[in-house]
């Protein structure tokens, strides 16, 4: 009955939004009347659907809502742009670097609306238009390359650095307070680097704000963007974190809200989404075994911390890592039921994949392991990754005791510059040849597991800050070097590493995905408000600017047609432009 009522509500909302069908056609020019290409035009519904948000500001379990779907396109070389005919009434935003934003309502449109973009002449406003990576490129915190890389590794994995929220001038003492709070969220600043970093940030941001007129120009938008199309679905709110997601064979996209323990099932054809609240046990506590790290954050509901997703090739069940519990989650998208598989070993389930034999593989980031769930035998197998030194081996062995203690009083190992004791296996992927590859973020290394023998091999090669990796159709391993802003490829056949510079400056890429069918790599550009496509054969880049400023993405899913999905996963989400996280679909201009 509830589903019927929801459908009626959505139908009524659609009727309320309906107006006279019309196509929106625009001619974009500058003040001199010259055609203006690569103007980003985003249309948003003038009247947003009424949402049912009865569960602490979120939809209740099983309740459907209609997302206020947004669309973005770019003008061509002649300044022309058109949106298809629709009954809905929209407002339009026009944006291009170096120009003032312009806004129009549907009632202001004609058969071919002419829009004049006015150049921005205010130096401060021009600087504010530039994405965070441009500001970050000029941030000098002193201490040389190693301090900057340590800063990037620990201070840029949740949110953009040098954004308007971060470049607020603070004293060294205020920065020390921030660094201490971020340590509770998961950053690991070495004990002897806290004060130098705080002093460097205080002085660096002061210099940066005083010299904003010297900022370099960001990379120009590609002329070919006129062939690209974006769709966004706003989901969640400023207290959400749409961390990871999966594109399911059933056509739905499942997005996990890491901070609110909810899964959003989004229909990209209609924009209707349904929320499923992940159940927790009565004895579970906020924050799980890590304790309530976010108690100062405000609205929070992360008993499990919904993280990464993978789909069974056998029955379509969705597996997810609850990073704050010693368990594996299974979700049946047909019955909408959850099953929790408890683990006796390991801490912090992280990135997850399935193989052709329907086995579920995932990294255990804190206990330096990879786990495998055999669905047929219903047992876990654990693969210990070799420790780098005795201190690390001892720290890992003591983890069960450490996490058994009260989170408020438990002792934590001291942090050194090498993150001894926390190599942090992070990314994982299953190669076509069956090898299971993993990357260790803090150890700066990677390796593989032979599923048949159980042997664990760490490759004798170094990559700085490898996060998530993927394997292409030829069994080559692709990963990002987080702190140095590189795309890296390792060929197991030749045992050679190849590095590719990113097409944007001062970027800390979070993750990537490989389009095996088309020989392309998609990279998350979380500091530059972009995602990037690398053509393996041509070794060329395409760069796709995001419609919202302060877009921080963590993963990419590739559809059968070569289009891609990602989520705006900035933490905190209220730092996103409009304070609104979104699921984003990009149809590229060429493949």
From TrEMBL:
InterPro entries: Vgb, WD40/YVTN_repeat-like_dom_sf. Gene3D superfamilies: YVTN repeat-like/Quinoprotein amine dehydrogenase. Coiled coil: none annotated. Residues 1-23 form the signal peptide. Keywords: Signal. PANTHER family: VIRGINIAMYCIN B LYASE. This is Carboxypeptidase regulatory-like domain-containing protein.
């Amino acid at each position: 009955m509830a589903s019927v009522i929801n459908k009626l509500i959505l139908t009524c909302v659609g009727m309320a939004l309906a107006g006279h069908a019309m196509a929106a056609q625009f001619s974009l020019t500058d003040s001199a009347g010259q055609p203006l290409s690569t103007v980003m035009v985003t249309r948003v519904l003038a009247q947003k659907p009424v949402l049912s948000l009865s569960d602490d500001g979120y939809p209740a379990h099983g309740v459907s809502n209609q997302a206020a779907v947004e669309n973005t396109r770019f003008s061509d070389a002649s300044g022309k742009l058109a949106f298809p005919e629709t009954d809905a009434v929209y407002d339009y935003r026009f944006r291009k670097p170096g120009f003032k934003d312009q806004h129009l309502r549907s009632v202001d449109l004609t058969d071919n609306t002419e829009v004049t973009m006015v150049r921005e002449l205010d130096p401060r406003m021009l600087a504010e238009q530039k994405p965070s990576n441009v500001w970050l490129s000029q941030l000098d915190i002193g201490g040389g390359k190693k301090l900057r890389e340590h800063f990037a590794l620990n201070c840029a994995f949740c949110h953009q650095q040098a954004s308007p929220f971060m470049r607020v001038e603070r004293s060294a003492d205020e920065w020390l307070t921030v660094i201490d709070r971020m340590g509770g969220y998961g950053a690991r600043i070495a004990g002897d680097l806290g004060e130098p970093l705080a002093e460097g940030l205080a002085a660096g941001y002061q210099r940066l704000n005083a010299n904003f007129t010297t900022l370099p120009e960001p990379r120009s938008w590609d002329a070919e963007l006129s062939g690209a199309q974006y769709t966004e679905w706003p989901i969640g709110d400023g207290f959400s974190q749409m961390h990871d997601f999966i594109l399911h064979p059933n056509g739905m996209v499942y997005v996990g809200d890491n901070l609110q323990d909810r899964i959003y099932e989004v229909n990209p054809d209609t924009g209707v989404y349904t929320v499923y609240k992940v159940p927790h046990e009565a004895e579970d506590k906020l924050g799980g075994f890590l304790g309530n790290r976010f108690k100062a954050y405000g609205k929070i509901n992360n008993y499990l911390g919904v993280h990464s997703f993978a789909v069974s090739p056998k029955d379509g069940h969705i597996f997810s890592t609850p990073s704050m519990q010693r368990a594996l989650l299974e979700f049946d998208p047909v019955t909408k039921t959850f099953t929790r598989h408890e683990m006796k070993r390991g801490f912090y389930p992280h990135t997850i994949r399935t193989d052709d034999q329907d086995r579920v593989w995932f990294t255990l980031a804190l206990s330096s392991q990879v786990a495998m769930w055999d669905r047929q035998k219903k047992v876990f197998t654990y693969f210990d990754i070799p420790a780098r030194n005795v201190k690390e081996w001892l720290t890992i062995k003591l983890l069960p005791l450490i996490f058994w203690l009260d989170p408020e009083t438990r002792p934590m190992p001291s942090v050194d510059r090498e993150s001894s004791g926390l190599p942090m296996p992070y990314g994982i992927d299953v190669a076509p040849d069956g090898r299971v590859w993993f990357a260790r973020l803090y150890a700066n290394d990677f390796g593989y597991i032979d599923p048949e023998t159980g042997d664990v091999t760490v490759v004798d090669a170094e990559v700085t800050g490898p996060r998530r990796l993927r394997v292409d159709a030829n069994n080559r391993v692709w990963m990002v070097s987080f702190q140095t802003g590189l795309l890296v490829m390792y060929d197991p056949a030749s045992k050679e590493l190849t590095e590719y510079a990113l097409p944007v400056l001062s970027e800390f890429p979070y993750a990537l995905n490989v389009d095996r069918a088309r020989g392309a790599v998609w990279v998350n550009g979380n500091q530059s408000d972009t995602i990037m496509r690398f053509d393996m054969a041509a070794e060329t880049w395409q760069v796709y600017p995001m419609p919202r400023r302060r877009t921080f993405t963590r993963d990419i899913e590739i559809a059968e047609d070569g289009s891609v999905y990602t989520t705006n996963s900035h933490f905190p989400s209220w730092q996103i432009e409009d304070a609104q996280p979104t699921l984003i679909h990009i149809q590229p201009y060429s493949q």
